């Protein structure tokens, strides 16, 4: 009996520390992000709020720059901006770096302005990390499956739309988001 209880306790302990993953289904394929709650708790909680309320569904990757990043989560197919919750504190000092396949929060020039938009690094972007001269961009996860889909985004033709540049000609839509 003690062995069974110990085994169940160990199973519960290990599973309670498992990193949450989020699967994105898009109009060009699927990818999965593993979230880092340990090092980016505020950012992960914020991101999951948008995932769980369903508000990423029907948004597009509206800024895709080959050799840099793919940004999404903030605009619908007609480039109408979606409403956001209150901005969060920048967690760019968490030790995570903007490396290939990592996911970070987009923001304005105000370091504490991130809301719903995120981006996926297509290469190592060291200049986006926190430093003495830069507030940085908070990394909170990594694409662990389907990075080929993200790379494929960067192969799609883009255009300017109003003040926005690097907008895919054919919208790359988020059609479903599931926490695993």
TrEMBL record:
GO molecular function annotation: peptidyl-prolyl cis-trans isomerase activity
PROSITE patterns reported in the protein's UniProt record: CSA_PPIASE_1, CSA_PPIASE_2
Keyword GTP-binding appears in the UniProt entry: no
Keywords: Isomerase, Rotamase, Signal
Broad EC category: isomerase
Catalytic activity: [protein]-peptidylproline (omega=180) = [protein]-peptidylproline (omega=0)
PANTHER family: PEPTIDYL-PROLYL CIS-TRANS ISOMERASE CYP38, CHLOROPLASTIC
Superkingdom per UniProt: Bacteria
EC number annotated for this UniProt entry: 5.2.1.8
Residue ranges occupied by any PPIase cyclophilin-type domain in the UniProt entry: 25-179
Name this protein carries in UniProt: Peptidyl-prolyl cis-trans isomerase
Stretch forming the signal peptide: 1-18
Function statement: PPIases accelerate the folding of proteins. It catalyzes the cis-trans isomerization of proline imidic peptide bonds in oligopeptides.
Stated family: Belongs to the cyclophilin-type PPIase family.
Pfam families: Pro_isomerase (PF00160)
């Amino acid at each position: 009996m003690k062995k069974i209880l110990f085994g169940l306790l160990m199973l519960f302990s290990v599973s309670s520390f498992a990193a949450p993953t989020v699967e994105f289904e898009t109009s060009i394929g699927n990818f999965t992000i593993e979230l880092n709650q340990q090092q980016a708790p505020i950012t992960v909680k914020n991101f999951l709020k948008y995932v769980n309320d369903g508000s990423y569904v029907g948004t597009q990757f509206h800024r895709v720059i080959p050799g840099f990043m793919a940004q999404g989560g903030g605009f619908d197919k007609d480039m109408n901006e979606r409403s956001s919750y209150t901005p969060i504190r920048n967690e760019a000092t968490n030790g995570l770096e903007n490396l290939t396949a990592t996911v970070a929060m987009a923001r304005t020039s105000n370091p504490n302005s991130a809301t719903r938009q995120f981006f996926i690094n297509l290469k190592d972007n060291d200049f986006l990390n926190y430093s003495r001269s830069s507030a940085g961009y908070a990394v909170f996860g990594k694409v662990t499956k389907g990075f080929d889909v993200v790379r494929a985004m960067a192969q799609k033709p883009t255009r300017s739309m109003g003040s926005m540049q690097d907008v895919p000609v054919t919208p790359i839509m988020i059609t479903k988001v599931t926490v695993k």
